[in-house]
Every structure is written in C-alpha cells, then in structure tokens.
Amino acid sequence: MDYFSNDRVNEGDRRDTAFQLVNALREVVSISRKLNQPISYEQTLDLVEDLNPDIYKSMTVLLDRKNESDWVKYYKELAEAQSTPENEINPVDLIEKDLKELNSIALNKGNKRFLKKRIRDYKSAIEFFQPRKISEHKILARDTYIAERKDLNLNGKIYEREEFIDYKLDSNNVLRLRLLHPDNAENIIGADLIYEHLDTKNGRIRFLHMQYKTWDNKSLNFKAGSLNAQIEKMDRNLCKAGYCNNDKGKKTISGFRLPYCCAFLRPTSKLQSSNSKMVSTGLHVPICEVKKIMETEKSLNKKNVSGKNVSYKIFDELFNARMIGSRWLTYEEHTNFYKERNLLDIDNIIRLHAQEIII
User: Fold this and answer.
1) 83, 108, 129: which is the final residue of a domain?
2) Where in the sequence is the domain holding 103, given as residue range(s)?
3) Maximum distance among all alpha carbons in the chain?
4) Is 44 domain-assigned?
5) What's the CA gap between 217 and 285, in Å, rounded?
6) What is the full DSSP assignment across 168-200?
7) Rounded to 5 degrees, what are φ and ψ at 169?
8) How many CB atoms lie within 10 A of CB 227?
9) Distance (Å, whole) CA 80 – CA 59
10) Any bridge partners for residue 192, and if so which?
C-alpha cells in the first residue's frame, strides 16, 4: 500500500502531500520548457501516471475535482441554455464547433498570438470534460534512447537503483525524472524537489533544492511538525556548506548576477477536501531569509516574506538564465555532495528529482 492510499494516515495530510507533489511536478515542467504559464493540473497528473501508475490512481482519489476555467463555465451555461427536454446539448460539441472555426481562421495568419491562446483555452476546456486518463497528447515527448547512450559521460551514480523516465524537450535537451517514494508510508512528512542542469559538454552540474510545505490560512508555524528540522538541514547542507558561494568561495558577486542561492522554501495551499479547487501560491523563499524571519517571528506569513520572496514566473526565468541556483560543480563534486550529506535519504520525504540534460 502506498502513502496516498494508506487509510492509517490522516486523509488531510495525504491530500496536502499529494498537492505538494503536483505543484513540484508543475514547476519542473515550467522550468524545463521555459513556459510563461504553468501547465494545467490535469496535464501534471498525466505525468504522475507516467512516473508511477499506482500513485496516480490513489492521488486522483484525493484530488478529485478538476478545476473549472471561465471557458468551461461559459460552455456549460451555453449548453444548458440551448438544451431542450427533447435535445440535450453537449458542451464539448459547442467547444469543438468554435474550435474548428477558430483553427480555420488562424490558419496561415501572421500574428496569431491571441488566437493561439484562445485555441489552447478551448482545448483545455475540452480536456476538462474528458474522464481522467493518460493524455493522448503528451506535454513532453517520452524518449528512452538517452538511457543507452554512452557519450553523455554521466559519471557518478548517486542512486543505488536508477529508475527514471526521459523526456525529449523542444530544445533537444532531455528531462530525466525520478519519483522517489519511501516504503514506510506512515512516516512521510512532505514533498521535496531537486532540479539540476547537467552540462554534458563541459562535464559540470548546477542545482537548486526546494522544500514544499503546506501552510494554513497563509501562515506557516515554525514549530509545526518537522519544519524547523528540515529548514536547519537545508541551511546546514547547502547554505553553510558554501553552495551559495561563487567559484572563489566567496558570497560576493562579480558581474551581473544574483546570489548563488540554491535552497528555497515553497509554501503551498491547503486543500480542504477532494472537491477543493487546486490553486496554489507561487512564493519561493530563500532558506537564509526564512532563518532571519525565524529569529524574531513564530511563523512565516505573506507579510513577513514581502520583499524577500520570488514569484514562480520570475523564479523559473532566473534559474534558466543562470541568475540563481548553485555554482557549476564537477561530476565528482556533485556525487560527493549527495553521498556525504545523506540528502537522498527518502525515509520520510517523497522526492521528485529532475535533471535537465543539456545536449
């Protein structure tokens, strides 16, 4: 029995962790595809099915409701208004009719920015009405060839059991995803994300780590559960260990670049029930700033993180522009970093490990 279907664990805790994991995976796709807007939660759940079909089945029970966009609501009302006792109108038929017309208008036109956005909106609305299943259209093209390529020179095995799925990105880079799930379901305390850029040409790696925590009413008590211990662990192993320093071992920055910050706390919203709409805040708070707040405050909230956090839109762009994240490490430094610090211990964390392999 996996964690999400374990009825010995409080359902609210399981739902919160499921939502943390979904948000982490959405963030992974947003970073790797350089998207201005995250993919939908439904598309994200499709990827969970790819990574672990059993977890997908149990998670979708906890996250039952699909989010209704304004277009879904519009076509629902339109179908209801046009329906008669003798003839019930299907919202999907109305959307497909308008989509077909819009596609013909947009064909061979130069400036199609807003037309394309409307087309995406219509397709997402159609997806809402479909039963949950693995999508026929993949957000990421799955590609297993890289697992057998020898010229990537990916030395340094940091997992005893290498289980991953590779996806081909539009940039011809490859996104390698691992979902690490502890066996002891009763003791799971949250979700964690590691995102890495692997430069295969120069044999170097850079990373960032994010700890996802659920906050209640936009407040996160530092003494709640294991939060304090997790913050201390990230601070000790990343910040104080010097991974926010530059190549010369200094925190001072030369050139146009933000600090080499690679450890972040990522508050996510609490879902009250399986029917709750999936909407989450997009705050990324550097662990060093969290530590400063802990010195004078009992909890983290929107007021005391104001001016000290990065929104999801800016965060993804900054990491891809190499303005935040660790300095470049050699393969040997990278492997030793994990082995010496036991950061891949998954006794109580569901971990999503993403590696964007730059070909």
Assistant:
1) 129
2) 70-129
3) 77
4) no
5) 17
6) E-TTS-EEEEEEE--S-GGG---EEEEEEEEET
7) -90, 165
8) 22
9) 31
10) 211, 351
pLDDT of residue 96: 92
Token pair, residue 162, equals 């290498």
> What residues in the chain have per-residue pLDDT under 50?
134-137, 272-276
Distance CA 296, CA 290 (A): 11
Place of tokens 């910050």: 261
Residue 196 one-letter amino acid: E
Indicate the residue type of 69: S
Asked whether residue 84 falls in the same domain as residue 204, the answer is no
Q: Can you give the pLDDT at residue 134?
A: 47
pLDDT digits (tens, 9 = 90+) for 204-234: 999 999 999 888 767 888 887 788 888 998 8
Residue 114: is it exposed, middle or buried by C-beta count within 10 angstroms (0-12/13-18/19+)? exposed
Identity (one letter) of the amino acid at 93?
D
- For 290, the 3-state DSSP assignment is helix
Q: What is the pLDDT of residue 136?
A: 47
CA distance to 5, 14, 18, 266, per residue, from 58 (Å): 5, 10, 9, 24
**Residue 276: predicted pLDDT:** 46
Residues 120 and 202 in one domain: no
Please give the backbone phi and psi of residue 179, each rounded to the nearest 5 degrees, phi first: -115, 110
Task: For residues 232 and 321, state if they share a domain.
Answer: yes
- The conformation of residue 112, written as its DSSP 8-state character, comes to -
The vertex-333 CA angle with 144 and 211, nearest 5°, equals 70
Q: How much is the pLDDT for 229?
A: 86
141 forms beta bridges with 168
Per-residue confidence (pLDDT) for residue 347, from 0 to 100: 67
Same domain assignment for residues 354 and 226: yes
Alpha-carbon distance of 194 to 263, in angstroms, equals 10
Q: Tell whether 52 is covered by a domain.
A: no
Considering the domain architecture, whether residues 157 and 102 belong to the same structural domain is answered as no
Is 333 part of any domain?
A: yes
